[in-house]
Amino acid sequence: MENNKINKDPMTVNEARFVSLAPHIRSNDTVRKIMLDVIIALVPAMIASVYFFGTRAIALLAVCIGACVFTELITQKCLKKTVQIADLSAVVTGILIALNMPESFPLWMAAFGSVFAILVVKECFGGIGFNFMNPALAARLVLMTSWPKQITDYISPEILKQGITTSSAAVDGISFATPLQIIASGDVTNLPSMGDMFMGNIGGVIGETSAIALLIGFVYLVARKVITWEIPVIYVATTAVCLFVLGIPMELIPYELLAGGLLLGAIFMATDYTTNPINKKGRIIFALGCGILTAVIRVKASLPEGVSYAICLMNLATPLIDKLTVSSAYGEAK
């Protein structure tokens, strides 16, 4: 490109200033197409959540999606920005927030978390592509801090099948320990079968229990080239190795991997384009960090789960990782 042409056209100057290093990859993907693929990949998990947790799962999904989309619409109108709700990113955030809630979680609290995710974490930092951490996970952390009891009140699908409603379970004090809570207690005789672990017939947040549904979504996203395998696979593998090193018996490792939010977080939130590193080397470091932190939190901290904290901490480290792993221009002297 000739210098005089650049100087005459301010738009060309800006374009030239932000051109990335070669090779330059052209793609027909749009935000809407990518988000639609993510929604499709989440459909099995949503179906499983409704199957195991009933209409309450539908209510959580509807409230979180509605709150996210409405907040984005109002915020962008108030800021006189182009309304972008049609790109479906707010819908994806709402789905992920809902899937990170237990069946008994109050709907107004879920709506509060959804508003926080869009208003504070996303729009206050410039909108899609500028958020410093995954909005859905940020919302979960705020809700965990604000209402720790409510967000850890898990109801077993078996109890729900007996006709006990959320309200009556709360009155009677009926709750169900997740596999991670059982392992943390030291009494592993009450662990569910591996079949129940794979299918999702266990206690937990509505979107994390069915491993098979989440893995179907993973295969779809990889096949559609929306994500690559590196972050989810390295994340889960690193968690397994670190858990073993930290003293978790080998026979309990499968329970640690299938229980909790590990698969949900590794597949759908650690792979967020905005908040993970831009190159392959950086993504490997990111995934290793997520796995190490998850294992350390689960074994050494007071919480049986650590996925949300691990991913958010690594989100904050992403700019540093990008700086340390930036590629050199072709032909540049080392």
TrEMBL record:
GO biological process, one term: transmembrane transport
Subcellular location, principal: membrane
Lineage top rank: taxon: Bacteria
Keyword Metal-binding appears in the UniProt entry: no
InterPro entries cross-referenced by the UniProt entry: NqrB/RnfD, RnfD_bac
Positions of post-translational FMN phosphoryl threonine modification: T178
Entry GO terms, CC: plasma membrane
Spans traversing the lipid bilayer: 34-52, 58-75, 82-99, 198-222, 229-246, 252-271, 283-301
Subunit structure as annotated in this protein's UniProt entry: The complex is composed of six subunits: RnfA, RnfB, RnfC, RnfD, RnfE and RnfG.
Family membership noted in the UniProt record: Belongs to the NqrB/RnfD family.
Name of the protein this chain belongs to: Ion-translocating oxidoreductase complex subunit D
Taxonomic path: Bacteria, Bacillati, Bacillota, Tissierellia, Tissierellales
Name of the coding gene: rnfD
